[in-house]
Amino acid sequence: MSRARHRRPVIGIIGNMTLLNEHYPVHAGGTMNSEAVAEVSGCLPIIIPSDPRFVSVDELLDLCDGFLLTGGRPNVHPSEYGEDETPAHGCFDRCRDAITLPLVRACVERGQPILGICRGFQEVNVAMGGTLFPEIRDLPGRMNHRMPPDGSLEEKFALRHPVRFTPGGVFARLMGAEEVVTNTLHGQGINRPGPRIVIDGWAPDGTPEAIFVKDAPGFTLSVQWHPEWRAGEDPVSRPLFEAFGRATAAWADGRAMPVPRRA
């Protein structure tokens, strides 16, 4: 586990399969993810081609010190949590499922840091035995958590609702507050949490927004919003990526860091 510290700790950013110019397939990761990892976490970002034809979980565990499980348009396939595919489940990336779900379980067991964002948040729940709702806005009493279909990036990533944390819980201690305001750009959400998933933050309509894995030896915080947006200046995003960076640096030094604390 220990590595020579002549370099920054490495964070693997899970890439999404997409089409460039509508026909050229690429594995991509948003620039804002790399910015957050490099400038706030203080780590070296690398994009992972999330396809088992090209990489294996064992290789990734050896190559990287931590992993950022990014958001993405494709959803986790419902067969991964025992349900049938329906039109409401949207599109899928089965190659990403094949990498990230076993990767999450391996990291949890080893204590290797992971930070889940949006789809990544949902992947952590599914990997740990939980299920998802295919469309939050269709549930009685729930708000529309999807991003506005039009407008600038600033408008899409604008702060839109509060998130309430467990008083005295992991996120409240990390943020120094029991309530924060976040953006929201997701369609799916947690239905049943996995047996070890602790829900530590909620939107006003009861939608889970912040989780971690109970009794995990390492960093496992995940959020349903997108903290990578302007992470260096946002008072909610910065402590999250700073804590992730500290945990990743500790792993690179041969130590696991399970519970983040406010610097």
Keywords:
single chain, alpha/beta, Rossmann fold, nine-stranded mixed beta sheet
Layout of secondary structure:
Elements: E1 10-14, E2 16-20, E3 24-28, H1 31-40, E4 44-48, H2 57-63, E5 66-69, H3 94-110, E6 114-117, H4 119-127, E7 132-133, H5 153-156, E8 161-165, H6 170-175, E9 179-182, E10 189-190, E11 197-202, E12 208-213, E13 222-223, H7 237-252
Parallel strand pairs: 1-4, 1-5, 5-6, 6-13
Antiparallel strand pairs: 2-3, 7-10, 8-9, 8-11, 11-12, 12-13
SS content category: alpha/beta
Count of spatially separate domains? 1
| CATH uppermost class | Alpha Beta
Q: Report the strand count.
A: 13
The shape is globular
Notes on the structure:
This protein has 263 residues and is of the alpha/beta class. The chain has one domain (10-136, 146-252): Class I glutamine amidotransferase (GATase) domain (Rossmann fold, 3-Layer(aba) Sandwich). The chain has seven helices and 13 strands. A nine-stranded mixed sheet has the order 4-1-5-6-13-12-11-8-9, with helices on both faces. It has a two-stranded antiparallel sheet with strand order 2-3. A two-stranded antiparallel sheet has the order 7-10. The mean pLDDT is 91.
Quick structural gist:
The protein is an alpha/beta fold and 263 residues long. The chain is 26% helix and 21% strand.
